[in-house]
Amino acid sequence: MAAPSKLVYTTRLNEWEIYRARPDGSARTRITSGGRSDYPAASPDGLHVAYAHFVDGSWELYVADADGGNPRRLTENPVAFDGYPAWSPDSKEIAFESYRDGHYQLEIATLDGALVRSLTPAGVSDGSPAWSPDGSTIAVDRLVGGHWQLFLLSADGASATQLTQGGADVGHPSWSPDGKELVYSLNRAGNFDLYLINSDGSGAHALRSSAANEWWPAWSPDGTTIAYVSDQLGGVDSLFGVPPQGGASRKLAYEDFAQRDPAWTPDGSLLYATQGDLNGEIFISNADGSAARRLTNRPAYDFGPSISPDGSRIAFTSVVGDFDRIVVMRSNGSGVRQLSPRLAVWDEFNPRWSPDGKRILFSSNRYGQADLFLMDANGAHRKRFTSTGLLSEAYGDWSPDGKRIAITVASAKAKYWIDIVNVDGTGRRTLVRGQASDAYHPSWSPDGRRIAFIDDSTGQRHVYLIGSNGIGFHQLTSGSTNDDWPAWSPDGKLIAFTRFRGDGGSEIDTVGPNGSGPDTLVRTDDSTGDPSWSRPRRGS
């Protein structure tokens, strides 16, 4: 009987990972991989990094080698939040914040996960611990009278001294290397500023105060820089540094995406959490979107999957270092293999299987502009398919009989249209041009008679349909949101596409070739798109 078709797609997971970099952004290295990780802290001896990792539905404390290797889970409490680790100066113990029994508690654990002691009295909430350089004291923010205030706790829990007063919330303390001062964030009327205070509670004064939020400070080991988080760049959290005596700030460890939770290593590098790779991963589900299963779990950003006609293999694009690469795996996620040359200094992307599963069509900018290339399914016998010298010829799709290829063409004036070319390179003709301002990302119907594509002539990107003979141009989707990446279902009854929602996310919707719908096929809390269907195949 026929085995059911499958749907593969990309989900950009909203996951934070921990990175290490020099303050100038060089020597950037990913420390954690897979899932959500946050709140890093480097051990003073430089051998380990502690952090919180979301696992089994809760945040748990982990310790790994300094390079991220050999991660070990220290806590296992599914009803608690365990995070914000702070190392003792001798690197033998970790103080951390734990939400248990309705309160935030300060716990002390050893490297094997054994809980040594709790420093928080019953009914009290403590958070954001910071161990003093001499090991005698732990700074925390403690909830008092409805506001978080800065306290110093003796490391044995015998005493507690309040340093700040008033109606503002204090958080995230960090010690100066000599133990004489602390820097912390202070929230007045919803805006965070940076403050300094002597360890005896005197001399509190603003270090940074502006219209932007500035918080989560971390004092560098050499005492010259206080790293902190600020949303001054268009509301996106980023890392900055400022001298402890004040003055101009500077950007640290630049990323294109949000950063938070800075922590210094003993050698003066920075640890921080970021969504810098956005964790694009490949998922597979039943054709109706049910029974979704994650196939990839890699530090690279994986996207744009194409499932082979027999459903056994999936080709996709993976961002490896600075370049896009074509990668193939089995449809169960195993056997991952890169087809692009490993030392190539160009991009290869958007793979599409031939109907017989023997070849892969893909795009590449190897010769400057984007062109289409062909290769065998194993990566051999690579051949340039288009080379007209136009700005771009990319994003192709095979006709069901494998004899023609529809391609997206771009001119030097950045206008896009769709051409159809025989697979031997002859018989080129324009399918859509002039009827729309831009037309791109073609997808053939299973019977070869129609092509779905994206058009933005209305000011929004929507799905359109045209006959493969160039007749019957009409619009399928509408509305105030943008649509992209159409893909026909194997039976020709639906066209799946990516719909970009107004909340900044995206989902996979379907529309009928007669304009019925749209209906949501796959929606997650993250951004989902790039649909690709397999065709029903014979099975046992």
Would you tell me which CATH topology of the largest domain applies?
Answer: Neuraminidase
Quick one: how many beta strands?
A: 50
What's the CATH architecture name of the largest domain? 6 Propeller
Termini separation comes to: 6 Å
Which of globular, elongated, flat, extended, rod-shaped describes the shape?
A: elongated
Main β-sheet: number of strands, strand sense, barrel status? 4 strands, antiparallel
Radius of gyration: 28 Å
In DSSP terms (H or I, runs of 4 or more residues), the helix count works out at 0
CATH superfamily of the largest domain: TolB, C-terminal domain
Proportion of residues in helical segments:
under 10%
- Tally of separate domains: 2
Return the CATH class of the largest domain. Answer: Mainly Beta
The low-confidence parts are none
Structural class: mainly beta
Beta content comes to over 45%
The average pLDDT is 88
Main β-sheet, spatial strand arrangement: 28-27-2-49
Structure description:
The protein has 540 residues and is mostly beta strands. It folds into 2 domains: 2-8 and 278-538, Neuraminidase (6 Propeller), CATH 2.120.10.30; 17-274, 6 Propeller (Neuraminidase), CATH 2.120.10.30. The chain has no helices and 50 strands. The strands form 13 sheets. Strands 28-27-2-49 form a 4-stranded antiparallel β-sheet, with no helix packed on it. Strands 4-3-26-25 form a 4-stranded antiparallel β-sheet, with no helix packed on it. Strands 5-6-7-8 form a 4-stranded antiparallel β-sheet, with no helix packed on it. It is elongated. The N and C termini lie close together (6 Å). The mean pLDDT is 88.
